[in-house]
Amino acid sequence: MLDKIKQFVKESFEKFSPRENFAHFERTVFWLLQLKPDADEAMQIAAYAHDIARAFRQETTEDVFQGKDWNDPEYLEIHQNAGAEIVKKFLEENGYPNDKIGRIAQMISRHEVGGDEESDLVMDADSISYLEVNAARHIQKLSASLGKNKVKEKIDWMFERIATEEARKIAEPFYKSALQLFEDEWRNKVHEEYDSFVFEKIKTLLDSHAIEYKLLHHEPTKTSKESAEARGEDLSVGGKGLVLKVNGSFKLFVLSAAKKLDSNAIEKYFHAKGIRFATAEELMQLTGLVPGSVPPFGRPILDLELYVDNSILCNKRIAFNAGSLTDSIIMSTEDYLKLVSPEIFDFSKD
Ligand SMILES: [Fe+2]
After folding, report:
1. Beta bridge partners of residue 252, listed in sequence order
2. Is 174:139 a contact under the CB 8 Å cutoff?
3. Domains by residue range for the chain, with CATH
4. How far apart are CA 258 and CA 350, in angstroms?
5. What CA–CA distance (Å, rounded) separates 208 from 202?
6. What are the residues facing 132 on neighbouring strands?
7. Is residue 322 within 8 Å of residue 199, measured between CB atoms?
8. Alpha-carbon span 224 to 168, nearest angstrom
9. 29 φ/ψ angles, rounded to the nearest 5 degrees
10. At residue 325, what are phi and psi to the nearest 5 degrees?
11. How many Å lie between the centroid of ligand 1 and the Cα of residue 197?
């Protein structure tokens, strides 16, 4: 009967939802057998067919969950019961034993929430298979339409609902790599958008003031030294942008790349008891930028108060990574200072 059910599931999805990925169903059965090697045919049928209600659903996943939690009790109830009914009807028509049909219907009608030993096993196998097979697809496919937090909620929920210790152990590496992928996807997207956004904003600002500047596109540079080499300029010409937390608020400090930050000078200037660098995480939240790509601009480019060190004034030109690790701008220091009108004081040392 398992083969018949597989055929039925495939035909149902092909009719209504032709892009379904059957690997999730195959793997649910596989993981069920890992958790319970003697799982009988009835259990395997429930595992394979647990999601069949989706084949008969009219709306897309995006439509259904736009304004609804993944574990919305009402939706789960409908989804589980509809699946149980569909499979029950098919099995009855095919003369399957009634007691087994009863168990299968129960497992499917509880596969999202569990509640008894067999249902828990199907639910756990479903969770492992989801994290293994579907999570990556969801991250790539649904983030744009449903938002990243929503996709994360689904991944978290699928892991958290797991009932047995053994299943949790198996699922953990899949869960971790799904979260990693989620982070990477999100970071890459945010980076690309923000990098070019900041870069465009700077160019527009310079152009609107009819300021002359030189644009350089180069390999990604992570250090001031690499940047100077890529630009063919002296290290001292580089303007290093550092975001520091001073007296509870973040401020942007710009100094020559050949100099070091003199934190004592800053503490003195602001009567601050301790200052610290913004973490990469904070920098991302404040500016959308990664360390090394912060341009020496406060408002209107970055929403930060701007302070410039006297070492910048020693050079005729200033060069900087313009909101991206691969784009540099070189312009006259005079134009730069006129444009950004910063507060200037000494906060560098050799
Ligand atoms: Fe599922």
Report:
1. 243, 306
2. no
3. 2-188 (1.10.3210.10), 212-349 (3.90.960.10)
4. 8
5. 10
6. none
7. yes
8. 46
9. -65, -45
10. -80, -5
11. 39
320 is written with which tokens?
Answer: 């900087």
Name 69's Cβ contacts closer than 8 Å, sequence gap at least 6: 153
Query: Contact at 8 Å (CB) between 144 and 131?
Result: no
Residue 108 burial (C-beta neighbours within 10 Å; 0-12, 13-18, 19+)? buried
CA of 129 to the centre of ligand 1 (A): 8
Cα 85–Cα 126–Cα 29 angle in degrees, nearest 5: 85
Evaluate whether 45 touches 7 at the Cβ level (below 8 Å). Answer: no
Q: How much distance in Å is there from the Cα of 95 to the middle of ligand 1?
A: 26
Q: What is the end-to-end Cα distance of the chain in Å, rounded?
A: 79
Tokens of 213: 């500047």
Amino acid symbol at 300: P
What is the Å distance from ligand 1's center to 143 Cα?
19
pLDDT of residue 179: 86
CA of 82 from ligand 1 middle (Å) equals 14
d(CA 32, CA 17): 25
Tell me the one-letter amino acid at 321.
Answer: N
Q: Side by side, which strands form the sheet with 327-332?
A: 213-217, 327-332, 317-321
272 φψ region: left (φ > 0), alpha (ψ -120 to 50), beta (else): beta
Distance of CA 24 from the midpoint of ligand 1 (Å): 7
pLDDT of 254-281, one tens digit each? Answer: 999 999 999 999 999 999 988 999 998 8
**Distance from the alpha carbon of residue 90 to the mean position of ligand 1, in angstroms:** 19
Token pair recorded at residue 27: 């793997």
Q: Which pLDDT tens digit goes with each residue over 48-104?
A: 999 888 887 766 776 767 767 777 778 888 889 889 999 999 999 999 999 999 999
Coil, helix or strand for 329? Answer: strand
- Which residue has tokens 């129960």? 106
